[in-house]
């Protein structure tokens, strides 16, 4: 399937899931899933809930993945994409 066949919510979750899987951070998705929804089964979530989970877990997953060598994609102007905020 190409990217245009997914909803924005699905893409938000898939992006975070891919990074978490690649950099051994899936435990953070489980943690945030349990924190938000009182269970750790992301397969039971709706697309909207998965997008909410991705937003909640994004910072922690990026921080952990960056310690393991992940480099966020940069925008054409040298910064991170607008949905990637680091303080």
Question: What is shown here, in short?
Answer:
With 87 residues, the protein is mainly alpha-helical. The protein is 55% helix and 0% strand.
Oligomeric status: single chain
Number of helices, where a helix is a run of at least 4 consecutive DSSP H or I residues = 3
Roughly what fraction of the amino acids lie in strands? Answer: under 5%
Termini separation (Å)?
35 Å
Describe the structure.
The structure is a single chain. The protein has one domain. It contains three helices and no strands. The protein has helices spanning 8-22, 26-37, 47-67. The longest helix is centred in the middle third of the chain and has 21 residues, at 47-67.
Give a topology summary.
Elements: H1 8-22, H2 26-37, H3 47-67
Helix pairs in contact: 1-3, 2-3
Features:
about 90 residues; mainly alpha; about 0% strand
